[in-house]
Write a structure and sequence with these properties.
single chain, six-stranded parallel sheet, 22% strand
């Protein structure tokens, strides 16, 4: 008899956690001979929902209806896979698996440890996420005895990365002024350090014939968000006065094929990031397996795929490695129950970031050679078959 498995998460959200939920779904669908799959979609902040009309979306919609009917009739589940931040984990089946991106900083919140210990297994997307769980401990007081107790994660944790996905590229007409352009992809928020990325780019390239394409939004891909994002960007650019370099805003939904076209556009030479930390860093990963050079800090989730193991056992950086300092998260980034005030993340050093921007512009062939080697390594070692099997084994 098949095991009834419930996948609960932002399955239709246009977000990182949405992609994570769909990855879990795809992995579990490869074992549809042993799993009877049920789906419970949830919202993710104010992000929009995917609007694709394909086989996967039709199947998701059908299984959501089947799940609603199953629960209405009092049906239960054998296993749950919950794709979310740990403070939302709940026991809803005999076996419960928490699947989380974890945290981008050095510590997890006490509530995360408490909730993680209610699960039978934790799966995270990177070794950085796993280390944050394992390296976090708190001292608390037993409410009954008054004795001090140690709060730590006692649930087994395993790491499963994302797989390479192949899409036929679809060209976007970007109307770029120059032949050399950088690309940055992320939501515009404190963790992504986006203001510094724009300012540092302009300071380094104000008299250069280069461009920066920002695929970004503040909250979602709505028209209102686009207008607000554009005004915010115009304010930053205007503060620099007369400049030769160009900054472009790319806002709204793009298909996987259009994103592939973006990574492979002949005028886009490098993906850049000033992120403080990543659970994994999907745009960095996607750029890397599309052969686009990457510039970012060598810290947090992206370490799992931006280095190639050498025969001597060491790891070789295959990207523009920006120097950084580990410091406490900014006050505006503190998120009660999620990002702790005493936790740390990376602060890229402006001079190092600007130097890498210059190097990739002047020595692009060298960066392209490293990117090509990394692409080959990722396509051989991060296949869908391998990674899906890793996820099923971790379950």
């Amino acid at each position: 008899m098949k095991q009834k498995i419930l996948i609960r998460g932002p399955l239709l959200s246009q977000s990182g956690y949405g992609e994570q939920a769909r990855f879990a779904l795809r992995a579990i669908r490869t074992k549809s001979d042993i799993f009877d799959i049920y789906l419970q979609p949830v919202n993710w902040g104010q992000t929009g929902w995917v609007s694709l009309d394909n086989e996967e979306r039709k199947w998701i919609d059908e299984r959501i209806k089947a799940t609603h009917l199953h629960t209405q009739q009092g049906g239960s589940f054998d296993i749950s896979v919950q794709v979310t931040i740990p403070n939302e984990f709940v026991r809803v089946a005999p076996v419960n698996i928490g699947y989380t991106a974890g945290i981008e900083a050095t510590l997890v919140a006490p509530a995360w440890l408490q909730k993680a210990n209610e699960m039978d297994k934790i799966i995270v997307v990177s070794n950085h996420s796993k280390e944050s769980f394992k390296n976090t401990t708190y001292t608390a007081q037993d409410p009954t005895t008054g004795h001090p107790i140690k709060l730590e994660c006692n649930t087994p944790i395993e790491v499963v990365n994302y797989p390479v996905r192949d899409f036929r590229k679809k060209k976007i007409n970007l109307n770029l002024d120059y032949d050399f352009n950088y690309l940055a992809i992320s939501q515009w928020g404190p963790r992504k350090n986006f203001d510094n990325l724009i300012n540092w780019f302009i300071e380094e390239n104000r008299n250069e014939e280069v461009g920066l394409i920002l695929k970004t939004s503040i909250k979602n891909n709505s028209i209102v968000d686009r207008e607000y994002t554009e005004k915010k960007l115009q304010s930053i650019i205007a503060s620099h006065g007369d400049i030769k370099c160009k900054v472009y805003l790319l806002h709204g939904d793009l298909t996987e094929e259009e994103m592939t076209g973006l990574y492979q556009d002949r005028k886009i030479k490098c993906l850049i990031s000033t992120t403080h930390g990543e659970g994994y860093g999907l745009p960095l990963f996607e750029a890397a397996y599309n052969g686009l050079p990457v510039i970012c800090v060598g810290w947090s989730g992206q370490k799992d795929f931006l280095y190639i193991p050498q025969k001597n056992g060491k790891l070789k950086a295959m990207f523009g490695n920006v120097d950084f300092e580990l410091k406490n998260v900014q006050p505006e980034a503190i998120w009660d129950g999620v990002i702790q005030a005493e936790s740390q993340w990376a602060f890229p050093i402006a001079a190092s970031f600007k130097k890498k921007l210059r190097e990739v512009r002047v020595e692009n062939a060298r960066f392209k050679r490293s990117a090509s080697k990394l692409k080959k390594y990722l396509k051989e070692n991060f296949t869908e078959e391998k990674i899906y099997n890793c996820f099923i084994d971790a379950m």
